[in-house]
Write a structure and sequence with these properties.
single chain, alpha+beta, transmembrane helix, membrane, SAYSD1
Length: 227
Amino acid sequence: MQPGSAMAAASDEQEAVVVTLRAVGPSRPTTLRLPPLLSVADLRRRIAHDRRITATEEGRIRLVLRGRTVTHQDDAYVKLRDGDTLIIAVVPKPPANHLRDDDYDQEEEEELKFKIPQTTTWWKRKVFMFLRDKLRLPDVILMALFSLSMKAWIMIAMWFLFAPFAQKYEIGPIYILGTGFLIILLNLGRRQQGDVSAYSIFNEDFRELPGTLNADRIDRDIRAGQF
């Protein structure tokens, strides 16, 4: 070794500072001799070599020096002092797009939004797009508007049309009660051929559903010794 290079090496050795490396987690701290001024990319590379961090994880190293986060720009420089402590953390690799919670929540939110059927006429689609995109009506209102048939809207309009007359002749409570009973009667539905009601009184020969528990069944079980 030439005298000049030996002197330069000795000068570099004297200028080096000892830095303590502390990783986030249960690992033990280590010390590393580093130049007092070096780039962020060189600092990450030296730390990755000392802590045996893979090349793929080197770019995800985050450093904290004197209570401040070290910038992640490779061409930036860091000034170190003897006795400094560097806190090291490796940012986990983000999950795949189909495993992210935000994407899942977004897909779930899209599924919960009200959508009109594909067989809807073109003018209803135009009205729906205008109310949703331009006026930004909530899904609850859109559902109420497009879920009812034309017959239902006519009945609602007639109800509001006759409501002032009911108030004028002071039969408002009767009008409201009659509306409630009418809604119940219209939503009773019709029983298909072969259907059996849960109430035996409505069935032919008062036939009961299998497994129905009543006083006769309990008495019969007691007499048979099943209790």
